[in-house]
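2024-03-11 09:14:02 DEBUG pipeline.ingest accepted 1 chain
2024-03-11 09:14:02 DEBUG pipeline.ingest length=605
2024-03-11 09:14:03 DEBUG pipeline.predict start
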Amino acid sequence: MNRFLLAALLLLAVPWAVAAEAPPTEAGRTPAGAAFEVKIQAPDDIKDLLTRHLELQRYRELTDLSDDELARLLRQAEEDARRLVGTLGYFSPVIVMAHQPAEGGPPVVTITVTPGEATRITQVTIEFTGAIAADPLTAGQREQIQANWSLPAGNRFTQNAWDAAKQQALRQLTSLRFPTGRISASLADIDPEIGQAHLHITLDSGPLYRLGELEMAGLQRYDRALVQNLARITPGSTYSQAELVAAQQRLTDSGYFDSAFVTLDTQADPAAAPVQLKLREARLQKLVLGIGASTDNGPRLSAEHTHYQVPGIGWRAVSKLQLQRDDRSIGSELTSPPDPSNWRWAVSGLLQNQLLGTRDVTSQQLRGGRKQSHERTDRNLYVQYDRAESVDTDAAQPVTAQSLSANYAFAVRNYDSLPFPSSGWGWGAELGGGTTLGSERQAYTRLLTRWQGFLRFDRSDGTRAGAGRLALRAAAGAVIAKDSASRLPSTQLFLAGGDNSVRGYGFNDIGVTLADGSTTAGRYLSTGSVEWQRPIRINGRLSNWESTVFVDAGAVANKPAELDARVGVGVGARWNSPVGPLQIDLAYGVDARRFRLHMNLGFTF
């Protein structure tokens, strides 16, 4: 048979085969009252394909078939099976049809398929036409499309793999610079006698597109500058589908809009194609009421009010009231709209009453500065005033301390996916310097750094699905000041213990133990955790649950030499719930000599 004709028949076979899909009966089961039964003897992949798509399956329930009609159907079934098997790369199969009557049941049609040698790809040719072929700046994109071709020489030819490879190449073409690209020609040249296939595809890129001005629809309350600064689309830059998707995500994540759709007008001049934004503004104000609980702080009630455009200044105001067993707070933050670099001015105030160690602390905090947030990084520059009034649980005289400091904080996230990371790392740090206030002023420096990483191990067969991983966590902090600087606000010092610190101990239970047995915050902090996480299989299949074993350690002191680690060990479970990762741990505090249950929902860094 002519090789080109055979390839053409193959390409026509797939849509015909899909259209001929059998009724939704369970594979291999004969319907009640069937005219005949079909049994297929073949390798599993071929058996599954024929069971699902063989045209003969549609006629099993026609009880009025004559012998001549059935014979005609069997002849057609052989050709049908040959075409279907060809889509898996077997172009010279041996197919034997047998029709046998059965006592006490319908006749049995047995189809035996010996596929023979699979057709292998010996050559792949990818050609380019249009602007991508002539522009030297697009050489990298051409090389990437060719390097990422998913059906290289040596692989077995199948129709599904051939279709998928073409679509992947087209997606790579149209996702960058060339949104109107297309496949102008494709050919799978099959030689069934020697089992070889030569693949050829021509990609026509069309013109190179550059972004033009933003065309906005749906704006009523906000101005164009806000949208431009959130979208961060630069007119004149080359088209990138990823950049438009990221702009759309930033607009919807900002809170200003309920929905945002960002598209390119490909009918316009490619040299400056307008970017069309269809927006739907969110309500001007929002109130969120919350109820929850944690093993750190018990039941929790909260109310959060957001005003997206405060009259007179146009800033966003977020005010929150939170009530917990050992932590009650009320605060508000005013944030300006972002500038083109996504920096925002922010001022905030917080009133809080909390139990820090064994001391009841009432604190006030005022902060003002600038902050910047991106998908993987956060930065914050601010000046902060702290005032803390602490009372020991066994004393009546409060101790008041105040400070004024300048601070810089940042965080870097490099995880594979959020909020369910399985590999990667995150690192954050805070650096501040200031002075205590009052009759005796003392300078101090405050440092805090934290790191979290996930190290995934491949399975013995080289796959990653279901593989275990190590979750590692570490933090260190220091407040450097003279020993005489005793009036440091406790909110500037450190405590450890709890769900995301040292499990096996209560929230903020690890601190400096004073002579009277009370616990207070200290100047130095060190914590670490090693956890082994492994997916749980249910009935042989991976589930959304994981088992864990862990060791935590942490210490707080007023001098580095006095750091004495408290250790917690335990086991737990993780569940990838629809609202985020749920952590359930049973830990034993080695020094506390007691078990403690820990539960936590969500992932933040």
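2024-03-11 09:14:41 DEBUG pipeline.report Residues 1-32 have pLDDT under 50 and may be disordered.
2024-03-11 09:14:41 DEBUG pipeline.predict end
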